[in-house]
């Protein structure tokens, strides 16, 4: 497909890797912010192509992962009601709550549906006036315009049987939380390309200045990621803590004004709990007062549901870039995508799930391999 | 979750007074909301996330990384050609 295949060329990737190696004079640690980037990096083995002294650490950018267990339990409580048609993006349905996941609820007769677009949920409400249609509105800034537009459309069409369970999160406060941690190791960022198509680069320029880190807004294909790493390394070597757009075929510096206006019409910034991390101030969206009658938490009285997380899971440390999946004794053993203990294993974009999907848990198994020759040993030395 | 895929806009229409389009993703066609890309016209490539176009693809910028690789190739040839 155009604009995808040409960015997966192996020979071009080798040339970029060589350029990165030539540019480096000392070790660097770079965080890719977005879960989609983490998935692509592990899928294509990009972290293993890079010079040993360049470490990619995986960031908090997976909204499915960081949605708190309590919110999933609230979704479950709403979806269990006989009058409700519960709609969600597919990846949220497999995330286990305290009483199973939404797909299991569906197999027991619950009316749970996967939608491709939030507008599909609005259309379902219009064609099922006797049912309550609830949409699970999760995501980062990338998804916020779509979800906001759906809510705005529902109001324009006068639909009173449509509501949303909102669990929106924002990227910049999470990056700030990573950088503010005393144990932080991150020196530069691959910024979230699709988030920035919506919001533009101003917030990222501010972080780069304030925290003295280069941020390269990067795409999602192998050549994009390597090009993003090269540009970040150049800025690190030159001591230039600025924002640069690698993903310029899609990102404009000002973002998408129409999307921003729609977000601002429907949502306002609020504090949000991140699974594995905890409360981050001003890190999410909630409905503005003018749209509160679309709030499913109020409509179905589930705001009081609270749930405690597993205590053995180290996903908080992984989301902050302090640890890797293989630092966890439960990784691939007591914790798998079928039985996840925490945030980074619940979605394919979580670092642990990506490592598991591409067989990295097998690397850690001592099957006749000299431990010193494995990546595990290498990583623990770093 | 923030997955977005580029596809070619093949047709535009309105639905409930919202601009919509049909987008071709390598032979798979989807209905896409165009409310936030008023500049998009048929044959443009749009970047689509959960049924919404977020931006139009800039053809010149899309070539940039390849132009850079070309330049590296030329430099290598120069070096290889020198004694």
Describe this structure as you would to a colleague.
- The complex is a heterodimer of chains A (382) and B (83).
- With 382 residues, chain A is α/β, with parallel strands linked by helices.
- Chain A has a domain at 315-381.
- In chain A, 42% of the residues lie in helices and 18% in strands.
- Chain A has helices at 10-23, 35-43, 46-49, 63-66, 69-79, 90-93, 102-107, 118-127, 144-156, 171-180, 193-199, 202-211, 222-238, 257-266, 296-299, 315-319, 343-346, 351-357, 360-363, 375-381; strands at 28-34, 54-61, 84-88, 112-114, 132-139, 162-169, 188-192, 215-218, 243-245, 267-274, 278-287.
- Chain A has a six-stranded mixed β-sheet with strand order 4-3-5-6-11-10, with helices on both faces. In chain A, strands 2-1-7-8-9 form a five-stranded parallel β-sheet.
- In chain A, α9 (144-156) packs across α14.
- The longest helix of chain A has 17 residues, at 222-238.
- Chain A starts with 9 loop residues before the first helix and ends with a helix.
- In chain A, 54% of the residues are buried.
- Chain B has 83 residues and is of the alpha+beta class.
- Chain B has a single domain, classed as SH3 type barrels, CATH 2.30.30.140.
- Chain B is built from two helices and five strands; from the N terminus they run βββββαα.
- Chain B has helices at residues 59-62, 64-81, and strands at 5-15, 18-25, 28-33, 45-49, 52-56.
- Chain B has a five-stranded antiparallel β-sheet with strand order 3-2-1-4-5, with no helix packed on it.
- The radius of gyration of chain B is 18 Å and the shape is elongated.
- The interface between A and B is large, with 55 and 40 residues.
């Amino acid at each position: 497909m155009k604009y995808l295949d040409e960015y997966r060329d192996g020979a071009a990737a080798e040339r970029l890797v060589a350029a990165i190696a030539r540019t480096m004079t000392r070790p660097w640690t770079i965080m890719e912010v977005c879960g989609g980037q983490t998935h692509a990096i592990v899928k294509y083995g990009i972290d293993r192509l890079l010079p040993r002294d360049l470490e990619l650490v995986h960031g908090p950018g997976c909204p499915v992962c960081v949605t708190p267990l309590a919110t999933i339990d609230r979704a479950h409580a709403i979806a269990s009601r006989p009058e409700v048609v519960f709609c969600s993006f597919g990846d949220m349905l497999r995330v286990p709550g305290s009483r199973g996941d939404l797909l299991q609820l569906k197999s027991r007769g619950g009316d749970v549906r996967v939608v491709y677009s939030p507008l599909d949920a609005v259309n379902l409400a219009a064609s099922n006036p006797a049912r309550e249609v609830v949409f699970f509105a999760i995501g980062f800034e990338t998804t916020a315009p779509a979800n906001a537009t759906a809510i705005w459309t529902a109001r324009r069409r006068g639909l009173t049987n449509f509501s949303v369970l909102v669990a929106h999160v924002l990227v910049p406060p999470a990056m700030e939380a990573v950088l503010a941690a005393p144990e932080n190791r991150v020196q530069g960022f691959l910024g979230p390309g699709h988030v920035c198509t919506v919001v533009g680069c101003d917030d990222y320029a501010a972080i780069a200045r304030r925290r003295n880190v280069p941020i390269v807004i990067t795409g999602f294909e192998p050549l994009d990621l390597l090009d993003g790493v090269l540009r970040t390394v150049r800025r690190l070597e030159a001591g230039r803590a600025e924002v640069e757009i690698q993903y310029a075929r899609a990102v404009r510096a000002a973002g998408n004004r129409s999307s921003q206006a729609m977000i601002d019409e429907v949502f306002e910034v609020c504090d949000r709990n991140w699974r594995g991390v905890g409360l981050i101030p001003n890190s999410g969206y909630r409905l503005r007062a003018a749209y509160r009658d679309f709030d499913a938490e109020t409509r179905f009285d589930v705001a009081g549901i609270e749930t405690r997380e597993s205590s053995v899971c180290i996903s908080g440390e992984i989301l902050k870039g302090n640890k890797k999946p293989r630092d966890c004794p439960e990784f691939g053993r007591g914790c798998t995508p079928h039985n996840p203990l925490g945030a980074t294993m619940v979605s394919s974009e979580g670092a642990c799930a990506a490592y598991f999907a591409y067989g990295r848990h097998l690397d850690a198994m001592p099957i006749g391999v000299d431990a010193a020759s494995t990546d595990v040993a290498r990583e623990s030395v770093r | 979750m923030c997955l977005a895929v580029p596809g070619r806009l093949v047709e535009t229409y309105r639905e409930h007074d919202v601009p919509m389009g049909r987008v071709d993703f390598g032979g798979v066609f989807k209905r896409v909301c165009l409310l936030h890309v008023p500049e998009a016209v048929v044959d443009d490539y749009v970047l689509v996330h959960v049924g919404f176009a977020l931006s139009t693809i800039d053809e010149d910028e899309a070539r940039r990384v390849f132009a850079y690789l070309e330049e590296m190739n030329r430099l290598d040839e120069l070096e290889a050609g020198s004694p």
